[in-house]
């Protein structure tokens, strides 16, 4: 079996179309130069309840929408859940909101996906420990046929099964992490799909100053493995998305909100009372980013 | 499945690969699938002198026993849409899309006397009224059949026989907790096999999880036990479609600006005076536990019989705070009089959701009058 490799010049790489998946928040998409990149691993970290699973569910919808992905065709999703935090009704709500939006914007709706089809295109796997996770990834190699056209793989989360390993030291955990991430990297580049890995945050203490701070879990080694590291948190009573690491974009941060319909931008032009910042009324839904 | 030893009779009877090879694995320290997960096919081929192709084949065959049935979300929605337990608080039901859903691990925290046990009893009562079984594991010796009976029976009819649907267990330490959970898991497995799905319980309450863990003296043991417990609880929730409700206690935490990620402009960073003795009450059991639960509810005290139910973490609902009362016949939501401000656009409900950090919730406990 001969392995042929074509070398490419930097011009080839520049000209090749880089595809993105929108997060449905224009500010976050602008910050990321388009959204979640296809073909590479993106890491999503944050404190509990910061919106990671919500963002993942939102991406499941946007990858299937014509204007949610800069590509010729929309794709399907594989959602690997290790924590049990995926709720089908939430996906349904987001799907209905996205459908409604496009019906309003385009009178001649090109998008003929019904809600049912949107839900059917998301394949769900539930893995409880590392062994099941690896078995699942091995299974994926056979599942990802060209007809299926998987454009997004979500692993929510990697931190939970790794941190649940009781009789293992750092070295063993590192081996598991490397194994899993390598398999995902192969899947991402060979099948040209985006991979999103969700991570936890841990509290670390710096011994000299005795100060505690929050850092992403899974160690420094894992920090090198993703192409983009995105942190979700709260700042001044608003939700914030911050780029921690990226070779292409600056380390910016921006605000967003989570409504009943999914991830959206915060409208700056509304009246700036403090009470309004807390409200999630229907009026806060804004134009989904047009791509 | 992933923990079954390679050399056990069950595994060898599956006849997946050569038994001699399984013995070599065992001698090299790879005892089960979890250990095997750390090895790539290249490493296996070096270690055991196999060809890479062979090694890949072996990995695929062994892991095929764990292969999971995938579902698409539409089918999942159809399956799970009607499987929830409605509470007696209509707003909570509305925002959680019907009630507390089965298959999730839900945590309820609150200070002493805030009403956690009452909430558990009311949920058990709801379950009884639906005619379904439930299991109540009591670790603080606070279970009361009288209260449960009050919550079940209306003023008209007495329904004592419904109490037989509740199975109670009283335990005191973490070992017996894990024992009883293993026992329950085995029984559920049998019931499932015998297709007696109607007889299966739908609700498992553990009141509380913090009490047996606080008995453990060493902190490291506590983390391990919590991990084992979380594993078991989630397995029970997903495989047997149980609603697992766990109550937690509170602990005092020191206010630290760095950990809470909130930048307070009034607090200057140079003076340590304000930071020093700033204590507040928050959820016990640590940060890692906060990730494990699917929904976090908290009860804050508001005076007399009035309480606030706070939705701290939930994928479906923003951080609503629902006021309610604890009465003789259960929990009742407080309908507040709404002042409609004609200048602002009216909100959908008079409740305003807030951004709540799930692992740094500030709770109010019962204050004793001087």
TrEMBL record, chain A:
Record domain RecA family profile: where: 17-201
First-listed, main subcellular location of the protein, grouped into a coarse class: nucleus
Subcellular localization: Nucleus
Any single Gene Ontology cellular-component annotation: Rad51B-Rad51C-Rad51D-XRCC2 complex
One GO process term, biological-process aspect: reciprocal meiotic recombination
Biased composition, class Polar residues, residue ranges: 277-291
GO MF, one example: crossover junction DNA endonuclease activity
Pfam families from the UniProt entry: Rad51
Protein's UniProt keywords contain DNA damage: yes
SUPFAM superfamilies on file: P-loop containing nucleoside triphosphate hydrolases
Region annotated Disordered, chain positions: 268-291
Keywords, comma-separated and alphabetical: ATP-binding, DNA damage, DNA repair, Nucleotide-binding, Nucleus
UniProt organism field: Rotaria sordida
Record-given protein name: DNA repair protein RAD51 homolog 3
Matching InterPro entries: DNA_recomb/repair_RecA-like, HR_Repair_Mediator, P-loop_NTPase, Rad51_C, RecA_ATP-bd
UniProtKB/TrEMBL annotation, chain B:
Iron-sulfur as UniProt keyword: no
InterPro entries: DNA_recomb/repair_RecA-like, P-loop_NTPase, Rad51_C, RAD51B, RecA_ATP-bd
Domain RecA family profile: 81-250
GO cellular component terms given for this protein: Rad51B-Rad51C-Rad51D-XRCC2 complex; replication fork
Alphabetic keyword roster: ATP-binding, Nucleotide-binding
GO biological process: double-strand break repair via homologous recombination
One MF annotation (Gene Ontology) recorded for this entry: double-stranded DNA binding
PANTHER family the UniProt entry points to: DNA REPAIR PROTEIN RAD51 HOMOLOG 2
UniProt protein name: RecA family profile 1 domain-containing protein
Organism: Rotaria sordida
